[in-house]
Amino acid sequence: MNRWNVVNGVLFQAAWFACVLGGAAGTNLWGVGVLLLMLGQSLVGTAPARDLKLVAALVPLGFALDTAWIRLGVLDYGAALAPAWIVLLWAGVGLAVHHSLSWFKSRPWLGGLLAGAGAPFSYLAGERFGAVTIDDPLRLAAVALVWLVLFAVLFTLAAGGGSSAASRRNDYERAH
């Protein structure tokens, strides 16, 4: 993994903490600040349009998905709609897929499995920080299943459909 991907990974983790802790504290500025750093890294990179297209797709998808979890009673953010801080996290995912998460583009189902396994823990950690309330942790199984499929599809599409070994090899070479 090249150093730009490592920097992106560090920023992505910082974005999670900034968004969740900021959300719990009632401010989105912390998350916006880290996301601006991630965006800056993307803009000086080799394919910023690719990242921006992914962000443009994931932001409304993430908003709709987290709003659906609210409506279904899985998550409670204290509002009827997904809050800005969780939507910012979806933007962070979009800015990480082709960088720190690029390894999963050639292994989309592994990426999906890890995302699905990690999703409940991520939301439970958010609850411990006071950013979200989860009335029934067993309902997070639905979140895990949706994330498994969603991220497997996301990594497949990000790899150009994953249709050829040459495409996967090129992605691997760009990432290393």
Give the N-terminus to C-terminus distance in angstroms: 4 Å
Topology order in helix (H) and strand (E) letters = HHHHHHH
- Compute the number of structural domains: 1
Q: Mind describing the biggest β-sheet?
A: none
Structural class: mainly alpha
Which features would summarize this protein structure in a list?
176 residues, mainly alpha, single chain
Describe this structure in words.
By secondary structure, the protein is mainly α. It has one domain. Helices cover 72% and strands 0% of the residues. It is built from seven helices and no strands. Helix 5 crosses helix 6 (140-158). Mean pLDDT is 92; it is low at 162-168.
Summarize the structure.
With 176 residues, the chain is mainly alpha-helical. Helices cover 72% and strands 0% of the residues. The protein has one domain (3-175).
Question: How would you summarize the topology of this molecule?
Answer:
Layout (H helix, E strand, L loop, with lengths): L2 H23 L3 H15 L4 H24 L12 H13 L11 H21 L11 H19 L6 H11 L1
